[in-house]
Amino acid sequence: MRVGSVGSVKQTIKQKQRLGKVKQHTSKSKFIPSEFSDFMRVRWYLTQQAKLSGIAWAVGEHYLMHVIQVLLKKQQTAQTPIKLIDIFTAAMPINGQLTWQYYQCLLKILPQLQKFLAKELQANKQFIVTQLPTLDEHNKLIAHGVANNLSTAQGKSGALGQQYYDLIWTEKHINWQLVNELYRGIEVLGQIKGLKDITPKILTDETTRKIKAVNSVQGQQILLALLPFVDKTTSNWDLAMFVEVLKTESFSATWTADVRQLMGLSNEIRIFIENNQAKQLRFAATDWQLLEEVIEQVGLNKFLLTSVKHD
Predict the structure, then answer these.
(1) Mind listing the pLDDT tens digit for each residue in 68-81?
(2) Does the residue 237 lie in any domain?
(3) Number of structural domains found in the chain
(4) Do 243 and 126 share a structural domain?
(5) Do 130 and 39 belong to one domain?
(6) Less crowded by CB within 10 Å, the N or C end of the chain?
(7) Interval 160-206: pLDDT, tens
(8) What is the top-level taxon of the source organism (predicted)?
(9) Can you give the residue range of the structural domain that contains 276?
(10) Looking only at Cα atoms, what is the longest distance across the chain?
């Protein structure tokens, strides 16, 4: 499961510095998938956080984690040759829950992300990059991504993806103004009107005190926005209810989020539930993975819809 915010990345860096330095995996050391994922996140933070705006960095981190998941599925016992365009295609999120501005932002930083991956994977030695995508391939990749995402958002899975691609891909570039029109009326995560008739509860002083005891400020903020919309009796808590609340416009509007600290908030919620639930509840790892992805996508949409404009 992908856990840990920028704060946890900083903590990881400090821990590794106490050991001497951040170690890179080599072909001579045992390959440990979880350590590889952590290593790449640390490297992304160290090399890119000062170069990119908050939203661009967050979009890059989100997509990078999808890329890492695909790489790990392809990883073999020996060195694994890869074509980055194939990895990028398999990693593209097309679940219909992201706003089109995600893909526009990703296109702008893809050359930088590709350069980062080529360098870090070369140092890693576990994966051998055999071919780098061209800028034209970048554009086509994103065009297919934004088209398939729209098709999925309309309940058609990928059935209309090619038709939308043919519409938006004109003269070797993406027509973002047309993309904007095609996405008009599509409700992505963070825009769903599901809680329109629900009046959020006023949290008790005791609940507020427990929330304030959470270590992370971002953990406190998401709980303060989430809990007023769920049943106040902790015995009735379940992750499906949390997910439904997180998807809504009402929650997004009240959530004070930090775009650089979206990852890992499901872990904050998990710890809070385990410490405060009225009866012992059991959730599978896949439940937390779903919650994590929903939180990240809601957060990204929240910032993208207000900060990124089409060309």
Answers:
(1) 999 998 876 678 88
(2) yes
(3) 2
(4) no
(5) yes
(6) C
(7) 999 999 999 998 899 999 999 999 999 999 988 876 656 788 888 98
(8) Bacteria
(9) 205-296
(10) 61
Overall average pLDDT of the 108-137 stretch: 91
Judge if 10 and 101 occupy the same domain.
yes
Helix (H), strand (E), coil (C) string for the chain: CCCCCHHHHHHHHHHHHHCCCCCCCCCCCCCCHHHHHHHHHHHHHHHHCCCCCHHHHHHHHHHHHHHHHHHHHHCCCCCEEEEHHHHHHHHCCCCCCCCHHHHHHHHHHHHHHHHHHHHHHHHHCCEEEEECCCHHHHHHHHHHHHHHHHHHHCCCCCCCHHHHHHHHEECCEECHHHHHHHCCCCCCCCCECCCCCCCCCCCCHHHHHHHHCCCCHHHHHHHHHHHHHCCCCHHHCCHHHHHHHHCEHHHHHHCCCCHHHCCCHHHHHHHHHHHHCCCCCCCCHHHHHHHHHHHHHHHHHHHHHHHCCCC
CA within 13 Å, CB half, 14? 6
In 3D, which of 177, 165, 125 has the Cα closest to residue 141?
165
Of 74, 104, 134, which one is at a domain's C-terminal end? 134
Residue 5's pLDDT band, with cuts at 50, 70 and 90, is low
Whether residues 95 and 10 fall in one domain: yes
* 241 has a pLDDT exceeding 60: yes
Which of 73, 107, 134 is the C-terminal boundary of a domain? 134
Q: Quick one: CA dihedral 249, 251, 255, 261, positive or negative?
A: negative
**Is residue 311 in some structural domain?**
no
